[in-house]
Amino acid sequence: MDASTIWSQTLTLLKDEVSSIKYKTFVSPLVPTFANDDLLILTAPDSFSQEQVVPMIPLIKNCILVAIGRELDVKVELPDSSLTLDMIHRHTSSSTPVSKENSASQLNPAYTFDSFIVGAGNRFAHAACVSVAEGGKQYNPIFLYGGSGLGKTHLMHAVGNAVMNKMPDKKVVYVNCERFVNEFIATIQKGKYDDFREKYRNADFLLIDDIQFLERKEQMQVEFFHTFNELYESGKMILMTCDKPPQSLSSLEERLRSRFSSGLIVDIQPADYETRIAILNKRMQDEKISLSDDIIDYIASNFASNIRELDGAYKTVVAYCFLANSFTLDDAKVALKDMISPKQARQVTPEIIVKVVARAYNITVSDIMSNKRSKDILVPRQTCMYLCRSELNMTYPKIGEFFGGKDHTTILHACNKIEKELKDPTSVVYDRIESIRKRLFN
Questions:
Q1: Nearest Cα to 244, choosing from 109, 416, 404, 42?
Q2: pLDDT (tens digit per residue) in 301-353
């Protein structure tokens, strides 16, 4: 039996063995990822859910025995755990030829466009990914960037899942860049370059997550450059995610940075309050759980940096309230007391400075990081350079490196120009920078 069949039969029994809320919150989200004659691997959406399910493993094993008539060991892992990836890789490698299902076996079926909440910070990225999933190639490659936990990986998996459903004849290859690098290292050791290149250069859709792991890996960059070129010139779709824009990948070869910048670059911003409320309401709707409006407001107001933290807070509240058999705002506050630091100082980084300045001047981060020299772009860019120097005490060479390898004299000129403007308290630049400082540090 395959993993999905085993798990669906097991779930029928598990439903009657655990409480409704525990089933909906922790059991139902588990994904059957791998099965053989001895083992079933289930992947949990996050570490908190994993911790809640592990004590249930003996019960799960008993239900499997009753459901299929034989014993299996059960492991509950995270999607990117070494055990999960290793077992999938072995299973995929032993299948000849590699099946369509296995070529995208690392896609999480829970990550779809239907389960993605669209808001102001991710609307453009969502639209671009939907276009790709429907066969659009007007933007190629697509480069999604933003902080951790903002939905980049969810969108990438959603593209892969949608393509597999709508265009089953297409070969979808999804890989995390760290795994991509490790596979290439293994390829060097074994000397099997043809297998590696066949896997990635024959893809119709190459989805590569966390491309920043290519930095400082010269030989890997050369290999990926040729893979990128072959796919691009063949009209194949390339979708990448990163934690920063291409221009900030300073230790990446210039020819790769220019190719990453040649398509559509999309900045994903943190979810605003309304989007966070919508995400929490969707979670409750999917899990048929009801929390009061004041609890939802409390969670949404205190966890604004990324969706993973928001999800973790929601699940912590649900679990605590379930165990306490009480669902009040006071219970939620107790549950989250160790997760909330109201007076914690915001850590300002060059990336944050660029984002805040971009918003203040009503331009994009990509504009600031580009080589455009029009005044409406040049002044914000110089403002960013000045703030990196004055607020973060970065050296001129470090600032130049962050802005795509600019010479330190360019940075010095920018800082001097802004300092000269700031000598006049009535100037527009003075007011603008004071406003930006307040947004950065308050």
A1: 404
A2: 888 778 888 988 898 898 888 877 888 999 999 989 878 765 454 578 898 89
**267, β-bridge pairs:** 145
DSSP state of 419: H
8 Å CB contact between 242 and 211: yes
Helices marked H in 1-56: 3-14, 20-22, 47-53
Q: The dihedral of CA 65, 67, 72, 77: what is its sign?
A: negative
Nearest to 308 by CA among 78, 109, 82, 91: 78
Tell me how far apart the alpha carbons of residues 192 and 309 are, in angstroms, rounded to a whole number: 41
Q: The tokens 């290519």 sit on which residue? A: 214
Look up residue 150 and give its two tokens.
């903002």
* pTM score, whole prediction: 0.60
Alpha carbon distance 342, 376 (integer Å): 37
Integer Cα distance of 154 and 33 in angstroms: 17
Are 89 and 80 within 8 A, CB to CB? no
44: its two tokens: 């949990």
d(Cα 34, Cα 41) in Å, to the nearest integer? Answer: 5
8 A C-beta contact, residue 48 and residue 313:
no
Residue-level pLDDT at 412: 93
Tokens of 132: 């790709």
User: Comparing 249 with 287, which gets the higher pLDDT?
Assistant: 249
Average pLDDT over residues 35-54: 86
CA distances from 432 to 38, 42, 198, 363 (A): 64, 52, 53, 14
Between CA 93 and CA 255 the distance in angstroms is 33
Rounded to 10°, the helix 218-233/177-190 angle is 110
Asked if 240 contacts 272 with a C-beta cutoff of 8 angstroms, the reply is: no
Contact 265, 287 (CB under 8 A): no
Two tokens at 180? 């991509």
Cβ pair 60, 14 in contact under 8 A = yes
Q: Tell me, what DSSP letter sits at residue 118?
A: P
> Residues 12-30: what's their mean pLDDT?
85
- The angle subtended at Cα 105 by Cα 235 and Cα 113, nearest 5°, is 70
Helix H or strand E segment including 175: strand 172-176
